[in-house]
Amino acid sequence: MLYSPSPPLPPHLPAIRHIAAPHRTTIRLERVFWLAIDRLAEKTGHTWSEWVATELTGKPDGIGAASWLRVRCLIRSTQGA
Fold first, then answer.
1. Torsion angle of alpha carbons 17, 39, 45, 76, nearest 10°?
2. Per-residue pLDDT tens for 31-68?
3. Which of 20, 35, 52, 61 is buried most, with the most CB atoms less than 10 Å from its CB?
4. Which residues form the Ribbon-helix-helix domain (predicted)?
């Protein structure tokens, strides 16, 4: 039997990435947001983890990291960053 790779996950299903800054944590976002973060980070000359760390430094208390990153991703995408 030949090996058949799994089909790619749909973009609306969550994916997990581990980050170290500003503190070590795991963030679960839909794949479409991770793809957008990858593009935004590349445009600014950063890695996705650097982009995430930078965006999380401005996160207000009481707002979840994943929610904040979704909002920042949408804002930056519409600004053409």
1. -100
2. 899 999 999 999 999 999 899 989 998 999 999 999 99
3. 52
4. 23-74
Three-class DSSP labels, 17-38: EEECCCCCEEEEEEHHHHHHHH
Looking at the chain, the number of H-run helices and the number of E-run strands are: 3, 2
Cα–Cα–Cα angle for 24, 30, 34, nearest 5°? Answer: 65
41 lies in some domain: yes
Q: Is 6 a member of any domain?
A: no
pLDDT band with cut points at 50, 70 and 90 for residue 4: very low
Full-model pTM: 0.73
In a domain, 11, yes or no: no
